[in-house]
Amino acid sequence: APWPPCVTWAKQMGSCRDMAVLFIHACRAVGLAARFVSGYQEGDLDNPERHLHAWVEVYLPGAGWRGYDPTHGLAVSDRHIALVAAADPADAAPIEGALRGQGVTSTMTYQLQIQRLS
Questions:
Q1: Is 106 exposed, middle or buried (0-12, 13-18, 19+ CB in 10 A)?
Q2: DSSP state, 87?
Q3: Which long-range contacts (CB under 8 A, 24 or more apart) does 63-70 make?
Q4: How many CA atoms lie within 13 A of 106 on its CB side?
Q5: 82-111: pLDDT as tens digits
Q6: Which site among 2, 19, 33, 87 is 20 to 30 Å from 104 CA-CA?
Q7: Which helix (H) or strand (E) holds 22?
Q8: What is the pLDDT of residues 7-22, one digit of tens each?
Q9: Residue 55 in contact with residue 67, Cβ under 8 Å?
Q10: In whole angstroms, what is the distance from residue 53 CA to residue 26 CA?
Q11: In order of start, what are the domains of the chain with their CATH numbers?
Q12: Is the pLDDT assigned to residue 113 strictly greater than 90?
């Protein structure tokens, strides 16, 4: 789970989720609606590895929902691929569950390819 905004602010560092939660709270403190977005960022085209990324969408009156990536300090563009948006980051978690019992082994594998289409 992301850190509370006060922890991210105190440490002056954090993951993309932590930065997104801090940004959401700052927006809401000044009266702007904001939501957490989870997805992928195109990133370095020479690196085939991709991991989930998080950013924020802010509702600007007259302009609608606009994406901002506080981790990279930029506006969201066509290099961000949104999978889910939610008011609470917990509602945008990719996998959640519990295990009861003993002797159970679980393995999950995945392969992700992001390809730019012209």
A1: exposed
A2: S
A3: 65/35, 67/37, 68/23, 69/16, 69/41, 70/19, 70/20, 70/22, 70/23
A4: 8
A5: 999 999 999 998 666 677 778 777 787 878
A6: 2
A7: helix 16-29
A8: 999 999 999 999 999 9
A9: yes
A10: 20
A11: 5-91 (3.10.620.30)
A12: no
